[in-house]
Design brief:
The chain is mostly helical. The chain has a domain of 122 residues. Helices cover 89% and strands 0% of the residues. The chain has 5 helices and no strands. The longest helix is centred in the middle third of the chain and has 36 residues. The protein is globular. The model has no long low-confidence stretch (mean pLDDT 91).
Length: 190
Protein backbone atom coordinates (compact mmCIF):
# COMPACT_ATOMS: atom_id res chain seq x y z
CA UNK A 1 0.00 0.00 0.00
CA UNK A 2 2.80 2.43 0.90
CA UNK A 3 4.61 1.60 -2.35
CA UNK A 4 1.47 2.26 -4.39
CA UNK A 5 0.94 5.59 -2.63
CA UNK A 6 4.58 6.56 -3.22
CA UNK A 7 4.28 5.65 -6.91
CA UNK A 8 1.09 7.72 -7.25
CA UNK A 9 2.75 10.71 -5.53
CA UNK A 10 5.77 10.46 -7.84
CA UNK A 11 3.52 10.29 -10.90
CA UNK A 12 1.56 13.32 -9.66
CA UNK A 13 4.79 15.24 -8.94
CA UNK A 14 6.12 14.38 -12.39
CA UNK A 15 2.91 15.53 -14.08
CA UNK A 16 2.77 18.77 -12.06
CA UNK A 17 6.43 19.49 -12.85
CA UNK A 18 5.82 18.96 -16.55
CA UNK A 19 2.76 21.20 -16.40
CA UNK A 20 4.67 23.90 -14.48
CA UNK A 21 7.37 23.92 -17.17
CA UNK A 22 4.79 24.17 -19.95
CA UNK A 23 2.78 26.92 -18.23
CA UNK A 24 5.96 28.84 -17.38
CA UNK A 25 6.91 28.83 -21.05
CA UNK A 26 3.42 29.96 -21.97
CA UNK A 27 3.47 32.77 -19.39
CA UNK A 28 6.98 33.96 -20.24
CA UNK A 29 6.10 34.17 -23.95
CA UNK A 30 3.00 36.24 -23.21
CA UNK A 31 4.87 38.47 -20.76
CA UNK A 32 7.57 39.14 -23.34
CA UNK A 33 4.92 40.21 -25.85
CA UNK A 34 2.92 42.31 -23.41
CA UNK A 35 5.78 43.72 -21.31
CA UNK A 36 4.61 42.19 -18.04
CA UNK A 37 6.02 43.30 -14.70
CA UNK A 38 9.27 42.11 -13.22
CA UNK A 39 7.39 40.34 -10.43
CA UNK A 40 5.33 38.32 -12.92
CA UNK A 41 8.47 37.36 -14.80
CA UNK A 42 10.14 36.32 -11.53
CA UNK A 43 7.13 34.17 -10.64
CA UNK A 44 7.14 32.60 -14.11
CA UNK A 45 10.82 31.75 -13.82
CA UNK A 46 10.24 30.47 -10.27
CA UNK A 47 7.60 28.18 -11.74
CA UNK A 48 10.12 27.00 -14.31
CA UNK A 49 12.73 26.43 -11.61
CA UNK A 50 10.16 24.61 -9.48
CA UNK A 51 9.37 22.41 -12.48
CA UNK A 52 13.04 21.54 -13.02
CA UNK A 53 13.73 20.83 -9.36
CA UNK A 54 10.55 18.79 -8.96
CA UNK A 55 11.40 16.78 -12.06
CA UNK A 56 14.97 16.22 -10.82
CA UNK A 57 13.62 15.03 -7.47
CA UNK A 58 11.22 12.53 -9.03
CA UNK A 59 13.82 11.25 -11.49
CA UNK A 60 16.45 10.85 -8.75
CA UNK A 61 14.10 8.68 -6.74
CA UNK A 62 12.90 6.68 -9.75
CA UNK A 63 16.37 6.12 -11.20
CA UNK A 64 17.90 5.06 -7.89
CA UNK A 65 14.96 2.78 -7.03
CA UNK A 66 15.10 1.20 -10.49
CA UNK A 67 18.86 0.69 -10.27
CA UNK A 68 18.42 -0.87 -6.81
CA UNK A 69 15.57 -3.11 -7.99
CA UNK A 70 17.71 -4.49 -10.81
CA UNK A 71 20.71 -4.94 -8.52
CA UNK A 72 22.95 -2.26 -10.00
CA UNK A 73 23.31 -0.30 -6.77
CA UNK A 74 23.14 -1.09 -3.06
CA UNK A 75 20.43 -0.07 -0.65
CA UNK A 76 22.91 2.47 0.81
CA UNK A 77 23.15 4.17 -2.60
CA UNK A 78 19.36 4.26 -2.88
CA UNK A 79 19.05 5.75 0.63
CA UNK A 80 21.78 8.30 -0.04
CA UNK A 81 20.27 9.48 -3.33
CA UNK A 82 16.82 9.80 -1.76
CA UNK A 83 18.24 11.66 1.27
CA UNK A 84 20.25 14.01 -0.97
CA UNK A 85 17.28 14.65 -3.24
CA UNK A 86 15.08 15.29 -0.23
CA UNK A 87 17.47 17.77 1.38
CA UNK A 88 18.65 19.68 -1.67
CA UNK A 89 15.74 19.49 -4.07
CA UNK A 90 13.24 19.64 -1.19
CA UNK A 91 14.66 22.95 0.05
CA UNK A 92 14.55 24.38 -3.47
CA UNK A 93 10.99 23.16 -3.98
CA UNK A 94 9.95 24.95 -0.79
CA UNK A 95 11.71 28.16 -1.83
CA UNK A 96 10.42 28.34 -5.40
CA UNK A 97 7.02 27.06 -4.28
CA UNK A 98 6.71 29.96 -1.84
CA UNK A 99 6.88 32.49 -4.69
CA UNK A 100 4.32 30.59 -6.74
CA UNK A 101 2.05 30.28 -3.69
CA UNK A 102 2.26 34.01 -2.92
CA UNK A 103 1.35 34.82 -6.53
CA UNK A 104 -1.58 32.39 -6.55
CA UNK A 105 -2.93 33.99 -3.36
CA UNK A 106 -2.55 37.47 -4.90
CA UNK A 107 -4.41 36.35 -8.03
CA UNK A 108 -7.19 34.78 -5.93
CA UNK A 109 -7.58 38.00 -3.96
CA UNK A 110 -7.81 40.11 -7.15
CA UNK A 111 -9.89 37.72 -9.24
CA UNK A 112 -12.16 35.84 -6.90
CA UNK A 113 -13.06 33.03 -9.31
CA UNK A 114 -13.49 29.55 -7.88
CA UNK A 115 -10.51 28.12 -9.78
CA UNK A 116 -8.21 30.91 -8.60
CA UNK A 117 -9.29 30.34 -5.00
CA UNK A 118 -8.93 26.55 -5.27
CA UNK A 119 -5.44 26.91 -6.77
CA UNK A 120 -4.39 29.31 -4.00
CA UNK A 121 -5.76 26.96 -1.33
CA UNK A 122 -4.05 23.96 -2.95
CA UNK A 123 -0.71 25.77 -3.29
CA UNK A 124 -0.91 26.96 0.32
CA UNK A 125 -1.72 23.45 1.57
CA UNK A 126 1.12 21.91 -0.43
CA UNK A 127 3.61 24.55 0.73
CA UNK A 128 2.70 24.02 4.39
CA UNK A 129 2.78 20.24 3.91
CA UNK A 130 6.21 20.39 2.24
CA UNK A 131 7.62 22.52 5.05
CA UNK A 132 6.22 20.21 7.74
CA UNK A 133 7.55 17.05 6.07
CA UNK A 134 10.92 18.70 5.45
CA UNK A 135 11.24 19.82 9.07
CA UNK A 136 10.17 16.42 10.39
CA UNK A 137 12.53 14.37 8.20
CA UNK A 138 15.50 16.74 7.99
CA UNK A 139 17.50 15.05 10.77
CA UNK A 140 17.01 11.55 9.37
CA UNK A 141 18.13 12.65 5.90
CA UNK A 142 21.23 14.36 7.30
CA UNK A 143 22.09 11.21 9.27
CA UNK A 144 21.90 9.12 6.12
CA UNK A 145 24.19 11.51 4.25
CA UNK A 146 26.71 11.45 7.10
CA UNK A 147 26.91 7.64 6.90
CA UNK A 148 29.95 5.81 5.57
CA UNK A 149 30.01 4.59 1.99
CA UNK A 150 32.63 3.27 -0.38
CA UNK A 151 34.10 5.28 -3.24
CA UNK A 152 32.12 3.16 -5.69
CA UNK A 153 28.89 3.91 -3.85
CA UNK A 154 29.75 7.62 -3.83
CA UNK A 155 30.37 7.49 -7.58
CA UNK A 156 27.03 5.71 -8.09
CA UNK A 157 25.23 8.44 -6.12
CA UNK A 158 26.86 11.18 -8.19
CA UNK A 159 26.10 9.38 -11.45
CA UNK A 160 22.42 8.92 -10.60
CA UNK A 161 22.06 12.58 -9.57
CA UNK A 162 23.79 13.81 -12.75
CA UNK A 163 21.66 11.59 -15.00
CA UNK A 164 18.50 12.74 -13.18
CA UNK A 165 19.52 16.39 -13.61
CA UNK A 166 20.24 15.94 -17.32
CA UNK A 167 16.96 14.16 -18.04
CA UNK A 168 15.08 16.72 -15.93
CA UNK A 169 16.72 19.55 -17.85
CA UNK A 170 15.75 18.16 -21.25
CA UNK A 171 12.16 17.32 -20.23
CA UNK A 172 11.68 20.69 -18.52
CA UNK A 173 13.23 22.61 -21.39
CA UNK A 174 11.09 20.76 -23.96
CA UNK A 175 7.87 21.42 -22.04
CA UNK A 176 8.89 25.08 -21.52
CA UNK A 177 9.60 25.60 -25.23
CA UNK A 178 6.34 23.85 -26.14
CA UNK A 179 4.48 26.24 -23.82
CA UNK A 180 6.18 29.22 -25.45
CA UNK A 181 5.26 27.97 -28.91
CA UNK A 182 1.66 27.35 -27.88
CA UNK A 183 1.38 30.88 -26.45
CA UNK A 184 2.76 32.41 -29.63
CA UNK A 185 0.49 30.30 -31.84
CA UNK A 186 -2.65 30.94 -29.79
CA UNK A 187 -2.00 34.68 -29.54
CA UNK A 188 -1.50 34.91 -33.30
CA UNK A 189 2.13 36.03 -33.02
CA UNK A 190 4.50 35.09 -35.77
Amino acid sequence: MVSLLLILILILDFAISLWNAYSSGYNVALLKRTGGSGWLRAVSYSGLSLAFVGMAYVLSVVLSATAYYFGYVSQDVLSTVVAFAFLVFGALIIGFGAMVTIQSIAVAMRQRGIWNILIAVWNSFVEIWDIAVYAESFGDAVSILKGERSDDEGADVILIIIVALLIAFFLTYSAYKHGQKKAMDSAGFV
